[in-house]
Design goal:
Helix content is about 30%, strand content about 25%. By secondary structure, the chain is α/β, with parallel strands linked by helices.
Length: about 280
């Protein structure tokens, strides 16, 4: 007998499927509640910004400097000192200036040791200037070299400064800023400072101080030379000059005071010879 062919049943593999979640719609209220913390931080930052802006505006408006007192300046005008201190876009704000210069002076300014700034009230500040103690200056390589009481060269400048006398007769072969003038006798700087202080004490304006090789001292007042000898009785001689020099200004000649003392009071004025007088002689 013939065998009947049987049909094989197809096997179907079962595959595990995962249902795909569809994106649910979120309402505005739910979104806000979900980002509440971020909105809170943003609100705080915005509030801080508004407060800072209001505070800055208040400071700029209510702390504007309208009155400035400047003390101690000789080599610079009040306006020049103010421009050095109150520089920048907000340089006229007293509060910002007080923060900028709190426990800190202004340094590295020619002829000035330092400047202190203090705030008197929201609209008033005071600038105190402490100038370097200059005894005189010498000319070197077409520059004016200013030195202090110890002979230290503190400044090199192309401009003359009123109130500081020129000193001649000193011998030196080089000048280095912030180092002493290399003279033979450093004690001469004590004499220079003493002379400078005395002429300032008696309100005299000296153009030049000359030290002779023989140790003699001569002060120049425009065209009048005051020969003071070797420096004895210097205080008495310069005190006398405060009365004599005003009457001699406009003259040309030498005021001899080499032998002047409080007891002798010996002085004489020798006019310079003019060309006609020399030809007659």
């Amino acid at each position: 007998m013939a065998k009947k062919k049987t049909k094989k049943k197809k096997q179907v593999k079962k595959v595990n499927t995962v249902p795909v979640k569809t994106k649910e719609k979120v309402s505005l209220g739910e979104y806000i509640r979900g980002h509440k913390s971020l909105l809170g931080i943003g609100g705080i930052l915005a509030a801080v910004f508004v407060i800072l802006a209001a505070g800055f505006s208040y400071i700029i408006t209510n702390y504007t400097v309208t009155t400035v007192y400047v003390e101690g300046n000789v080599h610079y005008t009040n306006e020049e000192i103010m421009s050095m201190v109150m520089e920048g876009h907000y340089g006229n704000n007293s509060l910002l200036l007080s923060l900028m210069y709190k426990d800190k002076g202004i340094e590295n300014v020619p002829f000035i040791e330092k400047m202190d700034v203090s705030v008197i009230d929201p609209h008033t500040i005071k600038i105190e200037v402490y100038e370097k103690a200059l005894a005189g200056y010498v000319e070197y390589l077409e520059r004016y070299m200013y030195f202090d009481k110890d002979g230290i060269v503190v400044e090199s400048s192309l401009e003359k400064t009123d109130g500081v006398p020129m000193v001649t007769g000193l011998k030196f072969d080089h000048v280095i800023v912030y180092e002493p003038l290399p003279v033979e006798d450093p004690a001469i700087f004590t004499s220079i400072l003493n002379i400078t202080q005395l002429v300032n004490k008696y309100n005299l304006s000296v153009d030049r101080i000359y030290f002779g090789s023989d140790g003699t001292l001569t002060l120049y007042f425009e065209e009048v030379k005051a020969a003071l000898g070797t420096g004895e009785n210097l205080d008495e001689k310069i005190m006398k000059l405060q009365y004599m020099i005003p009457s001699l200004l406009g003259e040309k000649g030498t005021l001899h005071m080499e032998n002047y003392t409080e007891e002798t009071k010996k002085t004489s004025f020798e006019p310079d010879k003019v060309m006609g007088d020399e030809m007659k002689n």
